[in-house]
Write the structure tokens for this entry.
Amino acid sequence: MNKYLLYPGCSMDSSARAYLESLNTILEPLDLQLDEIEDWNCCGATEYLGINLIPAYSLIARNLALATKQMDSVNGTGGTRTVITPCSACYLNLAKADHYMQERPALGAKVNEALSAGGLEYKPGTLDVRHLLDILVYDIGLDAIKRKVTRPLNGLKVVPYMGCMLPRPDYKHRWSDHEHPTELDDLLRALGADVIDYPLTTECCGGHMTQIGPETAFELIRRLIAGAHERGAYLMAAVCPMCQLNIDAYQLETNRFFHTHYHMPILFFTQLMGLAFGREPAELGIGAELVSARNALAHIGVEVPVTQEPATPRKKDEGLPMPRRWTRHEEKEAVK
Amino acid sequence: MTHNTFEPTIIGFTCNWCSYRAADLAGTARMKYAPNVRLIRMMCSGRLDPTFVLRALSEGADGVMITGCHPGECHYIEQNYKALRRYLLLKRVLKGMGIEPERVKLVWASAAEGAKFAAETTAFVEEIRKLGPLSWGKDEGGGMKDEIKNGDSSLTIHAERSSFEKEVAA
Amino acid sequence: MTERVGVYVCHCGSNIAGVVDVVDVANWAAEKLGRRGVIIARDYKFMCSSLGQELIEKDIKELGLTRIVVAACSPHLHEKTFRIAAKNAGLNPYLVELASIREQVSWVHTDKAVATAKAKAVVSGAVSRVIENQALEEIKVPINPNTLIVGGGIAGIQAALEIANAGFHVYLVEREPSIGGHMSQFDKTFPTLDCSACILTPRMVEAGTHPNITLLTWSEVTKVTGYVGNFNVTIKKKARFVNEELCTGCGICQEKCPKKVIDEVYEAGLGYRKAVYTPFAQAVPNFPVMDKENCTYFIKGTCKACEKFCPTGAIDFKQEDQLINLDVGNVILATGYDLFDARRVRNDGYGRLPNVFTSLEFERLSNAAGPTNGNIVLRDGKSTPKSVGIIHCVGSRDRNFNNYCSVICCMQGLKFAHLVHERTGATVYNFYIDMRTAYKAYDEFYQRVLEEGTLFVRGKVAEVTDAARNEREKGKLIIQVEDTLASKQRRIPVDMVILSSGLQPRRDSKDVGKLFGISCSTDGWFTEKHPKLDPVATMTEGIFIAGCAQGPKDIPSSVAQGAAASARVLDKILQKEVALEPVRASVDKATCSGCRICNGLCPFNAISFIEDDQVTEINPALCQGCGTCVAACPAGAISGTGFSNEQIIAQIDGLLMKNLEMV
């Protein structure tokens, strides 16, 4: 039994539920046990780091400190000191905190000062922070994965999309290359898929630019979708909830913006693993994606049951009313 | 940060072909490292008679650094392995004598590794500083130690604090 | 105390005096070390200058000094200088000791008080030690006049010819079937655009036919023992399966061989050869080699087409590897370089994108004798590129790969630009970090290429991709680069990309270094004795290096180094004998208990046990002076000259300022 500590991150509960569901289906066949860090909190994504380093790192390091408390409770080989994250942003943040607390002792001291308020402490270097893909490829191994494949994805033309945050900056040299890592290619190939060389594999999906500069984000998304389309891919495989969300949820708007008609589904690599391990699409959250993968999977004879249409969409595309603004008097009253 | 004013005296044994040249290279490249180590040149780390180490420790050294070629790179083919054997044995003997075995350290440094030599030296001085003085025969050690003590203590060799650290500390 | 010691503290200009209070050190030595025998201590601006040396010589004569300590630079720099000075004044040179207060003190410390204190300790150690020094005599050994040269590239060929022409015998060992090295693969040579084969082939032929040169191609050195003047080397001559006595080099076997193989070595993977082959038409020697892995006979047991057609019956399938043993006096290593494997730079797409070529591939592509007869075409073998991007510094000057500059790539890139221009008329872009066109007539060549209309973009290429963003980029290779002169990100679509890949040490350079007892830099290049003043000698006497094995360099520099190394070898040969450092171990038979602990310790087999006397003996000619046996002897019966127990213990005490006032 391979045991690890799991830091799921916020998105696994919401937009990337399919990731979590599909991950859970591959644990047992791969003899993998993930113990969730108790009372974990948001890693702060990218926002805090831009404003003030100490609160940002403290927020992240709290999770690491909590994880060290659980190190002993996970008795097994290999994984007791290893925290794995399925999300690239979480992975980068956790790895970054561990790295900089060590490299800059003064920062480490400040962060620990903050943590001590909650009776916590984290000694940098105690834990190994690794991404799920890294564990699957290098600890579990491609051979072990290959042995579990009961429904090879032969003929499924897929582009591997690693995203930009996973391989860079690669503090601990975990990946084969910073710009053209091939771990995801190798994994998908092990599942039997027809993997297409995808030069855009580490290009940015736009991240949170969809919120603050949508036009920039749309262009980045367009390049990725167009690149996959031109190479004849049926679908894309993602390792990061953010990437998956951007390409899935913003594809329609991107098409609208550029007057294009791309239809490029994107699934989590764990969903494809689940399929290859013989699970049914519904168990893997397939069908929940906005750009449907039904036709793509039909190429290899996988039928995706029609999911229920979402509850009646709102008729008019207008915002909900905002709360009325406080008068100065009301505000004073409330503060009292 | 607390300042430890104890300045250890350390004897370093170097191999003529690798580590002594590493020290030369550190010099030529003007790398700065802790001034506490005084070097003795031998033809090979295999020349190291363990009694040299005991002699150094008994005559006032707080630590001894033994340096030689990397395994497989010995100028005399394999004599550094013999140094390694003696070193491991010596550590056990030291323990039996009531001396912290950490006072003796073996470092491999090739002729190209000036930076490594400098870094290892500085690190070892810090380790010995933490261990404190070797508790005998201190006062017979002579004037040198006092001179270092009387010198400007701020000189100590710690790497310059990065501006980032200063910023955070401020 | 009977010894009379003189201490000389060098300022080395401000190199030492800037940090160490040299006057204080000298005064202190005179005052505090007087009881140990120091009768004079002086400081001087430059001890190594002739005036400084005269100072010492004068004191030896006038004050009757019996021991000298010079507190100056590292003994590796000037020990010899001061030993000679002592010798000139009639003092045994081994009674001089250097205290390194430059490399070990002034250059590595900044605080004056601390540095001065350490300098005093170092001087104290040296004084204590020098008193225990003994007068020694150099050991003279004869020099074998034969020379071994490893590597038959242009550097090795040059060295071999120089020595052979001087009348001495050379064994030239080459791993490949033919000598010629990388230069034989090139089309043109910068900056003069001489045809590479035209200038190289005559040299190869001369080396191949010279009566003083024994060519050992398809061979590798497997074992080296001995020392300067007296090396014994074992060479494995791999089976060629062709009898060299009978073969005339007619080439019929190659013609008739039915097996076609991609030539990964000479044609850089772009062309084909047969299973029995000479790598190229002008190969020296012209005997073919059978490639056992690919030969149909060796795989299936039938075929033998070559044997059937060979007019002289030279094919010999039963030939076996042969071990040759040679005695040589000196060795020149000219083992050359490997091309950086551009697949490592995944961003540049080599190996993924068909129309990305390496520099060596392009050399073959543009070579009239190459796989395309000199036509510059894309990987499809037909289309001529309309635009070509040449990327410099691939794998060089990049902390992810090799930190160093590979020296030749700029000029190589310019040469490629010129050839592409001349032969295809395509638009050529050069992407460079810095243009490095030093040396004679190089910059003029750069200007010429500029005038030809080649476009230069200054910036490190971020990526070569086939992911088009718009119609203009469709079907092209797009080079993404930051143009640092225009401060702009640019995407330049081209048809063909040539990677000016860097040079790197031979894959096995560290093993070869170990075999010959020389060291490599961290990158893997052979380390020279002095980077400026002794670039072809090594720390091991009698082993010399030349060409790219020492570091990246162009053809003129490789030739110059080959010639320089041969001059150094000739110098040794003509001296007929060489003086060895008398650092040797010896056994005091009266004290030896015959325990034999030391017997297994010597890797040079210098230690032997005399059964009759039940004592151990050390052969001084074989002893290399490491001292391991000295340290091991429980009876203290073995002593090592130059690094004796007494010397080292005295130095320990001295460094620790032991009993400063008491002696």
